[in-house]
Write a structure and sequence with these properties.
The complex is a heterodimer of chains A (282) and B (276). With 282 residues, chain A is mostly helical. Chain A has helices at residues 8-38, 59-90, 93-108, 111-130, 137-173, 178-189, 191-207, 210-215, 233-241, 247-281, and strands at 49-50, 55-56. In chain B, strands 1, 2, 3, 4, 5, 6, 7, 8, 9, 10 and 11 form an eleven-stranded mixed β-sheet that branches. The chains are: A mainly alpha (282), B alpha/beta (276).
Chain lengths: 282, 276
């Protein structure tokens, strides 16, 4: 069924959903801009967070969000790529099947379960092994990477699987091993899926609030070592939300939300255009 | 003889029903819903009182939510909740903006706490300030086992944090290395697992998993908080928009009643009688 012939109610539904989404986006962006214009101007981008003294700088949170999201995405994406390869020819079928089952179960697992388990299992290990309180960039990054693996792997797997089944016989006829087939033929031609899985993963890594709150320590400062405590924008929103309304704190939250949205939006627009250009070239 | 016994029985039952059911009596002919939100320290008291009332009269529904003191003020101020709980007195601006009325009903102390294996069990106010401002960074300097001090605190807007800073830490600058957790429960978990930890919780949350630290020789305990011997204490408040009526008024009355005081004590706080 093409778009021109779809029933009226579907069109109306699509229109209203995009309307609602558009309104929400507009609201967040407008309130973020309002926070800067109507509030303390660009003092929000200072590095001092001390509400009692009237300082509402969220630069340390921006720093932490970017660090945590990028680092956990790198680890998580590589792990996903590994899982995807294992499931598509690098391992016997029963291992691939078992892995698929585990990943499917993992997608259904609530984030709080990861966080809670990590507080009792991972944090003490890191504290004993490396010092510090154990609530740090490293702990949060590891668990964030882990929780983003299933989603990313399943996106990669969908594309890799179909491409690999289309080309397997040809590849085998040419005398390629499964590993060669995967690395030389399938992965290069599924670069689009690999990229979109990274975008999806970035959204999860940058947007998750619960794991940073539970594991990253939430100290307001510029983390320089993986063992330093850090507070991400999302953690900041959920921690300050439970306190006062109005004033600089409240505005800093609106700004944090707008920044997160702008960050994820920019990334997905850029990657979207990359994907489109690739398509043209192909 | 039998008749007299029966009469006595009836009389006893009558007296018993009058004297025991009295605090719940105002709820007899009421129905409807009230929502309560705000301070997390209040939740055990509120839910137990709500349970008692809803059991007595199933036509009444009472919901209890947390969110912290700030949320309590906002929800009651904007009419989203009938009662908004705070662990701090209302600010002048909040009273003016929303027309709120405060009902202090319990005293809660805030205790510094460390891991049970930590030999440091007493500190001076000065030492606490040095620790939380980042001047003292090793337990050895306080007579403990060599190791970095892991600092834990609560989020901005937490009543427990406010009591800690107002009554103990003072006006100084908190170290940027303070890890933030967002509930008494999370604080207990963090301290109980970390031998180098120091943090603070409501006195009612002290148990064998963590160990309280005496401040200037004053041991944190419920009894000491009530007698005024222990200095780091705060009041817990219910807040209503204007003078409460109907179900809300009856609920507040129940909190101030005899069984209400029992619930408050059981939750680890000290009841305050209703102000005249």
């Amino acid at each position: 069924m093409n778009a021109g012939k779809s029933p009226l109610f579907l069109k109306a539904l699509a229109l209203s959903v995009s309307g609602i989404l558009g309104t929400v986006t507009a609201f967040i962006i407008v309130s973020g801009i309002e926070a800067v214009i109507g509030g303390q101007g660009f003092s929000f981008f200072s590095s001092v967070w001390n509400p009692n003294a009237g300082h509402f700088g969220i630069l340390p949170m921006i720093h932490a969000s970017v660090l945590l999201a990028v680092s956990s995405l790198c680890v998580g994406w590589l792990l996903s790529l590994g899982c995807c390869c294992v499931m598509n020819g690098l391992a016997p079928k029963y291992i691939a099947d078992a892995m698929m089952m585990i990943l499917t179960v993992m997608t259904a697992m609530p984030t709080v379960v990861y966080g809670f388990a990590a507080v009792f299992l991972l944090v003490p290990v890191i504290r004993e092994a490396f010092g510090g309180s154990g609530f740090c960039w490293l702990s949060a990054g590891m668990i964030l990477a882990l929780q983003s693996v299933p989603t990313m792997t399943l996106v990669m797997d969908a594309s890799v699987r179909s491409l690999s089944s289309q080309t397997r016989i040809t590849a085998e006829t040419l005398g390629m091993t499964p590993a060669q087939h995967l690395c030389r033929v399938v992965l290069p031609s599924s670069s689009k899926a690999l990229l979109s899985s990274a975008i999806l993963g970035l959204g999860r890594c940058a947007g998750d609030a619960l794991l940073p709150v539970m594991l990253a320590g939430n100290a307001v400062r510029f983390a320089s070592s993986p063992l330093d405590s850090m507070r991400t924008l999302t953690a900041h929103i959920s921690l300050v939300l439970s306190s006062d309304i109005g004033g600089g704190e409240h505005l800093s939250l609106l700004l944090s939300g707008a920044l997160l949205l702008a960050f994820c939006g920019t990334v997905s627009i850029i990657s979207g255009s990359i994907i489109r250009r690739r398509k043209h070239e192909a | 003889m039998k008749a007299i016994k029966a009469l006595l029985c009836v009389l006893f039952l009558f007296i018993a029903s009058v004297s025991f059911a009295d605090p719940l009596e105002p709820f007899k002919n009421l129905e409807g819903t009230i929502d309560i939100a705000g301070g997390t320290a209040h939740i055990p008291v509120m839910t137990q009182a709500a349970k008692d009332i809803m059991t007595f009269n199933p036509k009444i529904r009472i919901t209890v939510a947390g969110g912290g003191s700030g949320v309590g003020v906002k929800q009651v101020g904007e009419g989203l909740a009938a009662i908004g709980n705070t662990g701090r007195p209302l600010k002048e601006s909040e009273i003016e903006k929303y027309g709120l009325k405060s009902w202090p009903f319990a005293i809660d102390g805030v205790a510094l706490a460390v891991h049970p294996d930590n030999p440091v069990k007493a500190l001076t106010t000065e030492q606490v300030r040095d620790i939380y401002s980042g001047k003292v960074r090793n337990w050895k300097e306080l007579g403990g086992i060599d190791g970095t001090i892991d600092l834990y605190g609560r989020e901005d807007g937490s009543g427990t944090r406010e009591t800690f800073t107002d009554k103990l830490f003072g006006k100084g600058e908190l170290s940027p290395e303070v890890n933030t957790v967002n509930s008494n429960g999370a604080m207990k978990t963090a301290i109980a697992q970390d031998k180098r930890a120091i943090g603070y919780v409501g006195i009612g949350h002290l148990d064998s998993s963590i160990s309280g630290v005496a401040i200037d020789g004053h041991v944190p305990s419920q009894a000491n908080a009530a007698s005024g011997e222990y200095p780091v204490v705060r009041n817990l408040y219910m807040n209503t928009k204007g003078e409460p009526t109907g179900l809300t008024a009856a609920f507040i009355g129940y909190i101030y009643s005899e069984p209400g005081a029992k619930i408050i004590e059981k939750s680890g706080y000290i009841p305050i009688p209703r102000a005249e």
